[in-house]
Amino acid sequence: MVVSQRPSEVSDIIFYQCNNFVVLRLTNVNDQNYIKHLLPNNTSSVADILPTLSCGECLIVGDSVPLPSIVKLEKLNPEPESESITLEKRME
To answer: Do the domain assignments include residue 85?
Structure first.
């Protein structure tokens, strides 16, 4: 498993060894374009949704699915005791 918040900075050699990708929300245009190159030609427009995915949603691409698919992942049970930091807390 390879996990990165910046897929455009991961070596192509590493990605060429992967058969399946689970992509969470990406807002960086370079990262979005990189993921588009992983998709079959006629389905690359599905990557346009990447910056709008909500918490728990992902795009699954690869040998494990017949077509690129947007999936809502189940929450963990028990849920981790972590949360996103708010800007106000970070500035204190």
So the answer is: yes
CA distances from 68 to 9, 15, 41, 43, 84 (A): 22, 17, 11, 7, 28
83 assigned to some structural domain: yes
Residue 4 pLDDT class (50, 70, 90 cuts): confident
Q: Is residue 1 part of a domain?
A: no
* pLDDT tier for residue 40 given thresholds of 50, 70 and 90: confident
The answer to the question of residue 2 being in a domain is: no
Q: Is the pLDDT of residue 90 over 80?
A: no
What sign results for the dihedral spanned by CA atoms 80, 7, 60, 33? positive
